[in-house]
Amino acid sequence: MTHTTPSPEVLDSYFTPAVEVTLEGMREGTGGPFGATLVNSDGEIVVAVGNTVIKDTDISGHAEMVAVREACRKLSTLDLSGHVMYATCEPCPMCVAVMMWAGITTCYYASTHVDAGDNGFSDVRLRKYLDGSDTSTLDMIHLDSGREDCASIWTEFQALNA
Ligand SMILES: [Zn+2]
């Protein structure tokens, strides 16, 4: 896929609202130093949000996650394909995943995960887990013996969707 990077003026108009709401959240003590703006295919801002981890006591309240949640609710859809994410900082793997679940295929980011790490927000353990270089941080164990216990979910799902 090819991308035409927006002009500096357009980038500014997308990043500025995210930066402002993030600074506000930091000053109020409601969120960390991360923001995101989600833009629709017409180039209109759908939401501009900051991190809400502290405000919502929500470890998953990363800005990109919040942007996807709010945009889905606002637009009453689970499909944000055609939308573009502008993140003040390189998204962590969780946020990459939520963007993919929502069908977003383009994300521009400003500062990097190294910048975040330098400020005490390292996601390197996630990156290492996912690239397989260090899987010691989470024991992910498939219990084949549990399949029987949970099989009724698939049976019912198939019945409901027959
Ligand atoms: Zn994240």
Architecture overview:
This protein is of the alpha+beta class and 162 residues long. The protein is built from six helices and four strands. A four-stranded mixed β-sheet has the order 2-1-3-4. The protein is globular, with a radius of gyration of 18 Å.
Number of β-strand runs = 4
Q: Categorize the overall geometry.
A: globular
| N-C termini distance | 36 Å
**Ligands bound to this protein structure:** zinc ion
Structure described in brief:
This protein is of the alpha+beta class. It contains 6 helices and 4 strands.
Fold topology:
Blueprint: H1 8-28, E1 35-39, E2 45-50, H2 63-75, E3 84-89, H3 93-101, E4 106-111, H4 113-118, H5 124-130, H6 147-160
Parallel strand pairs: 3-4
Antiparallel strand pairs: 1-2, 1-3
Helix pairs in contact: 2-3
Features:
14% strand; 162 residues; four-stranded mixed β-sheet; single chain; alpha+beta; binds zinc ion
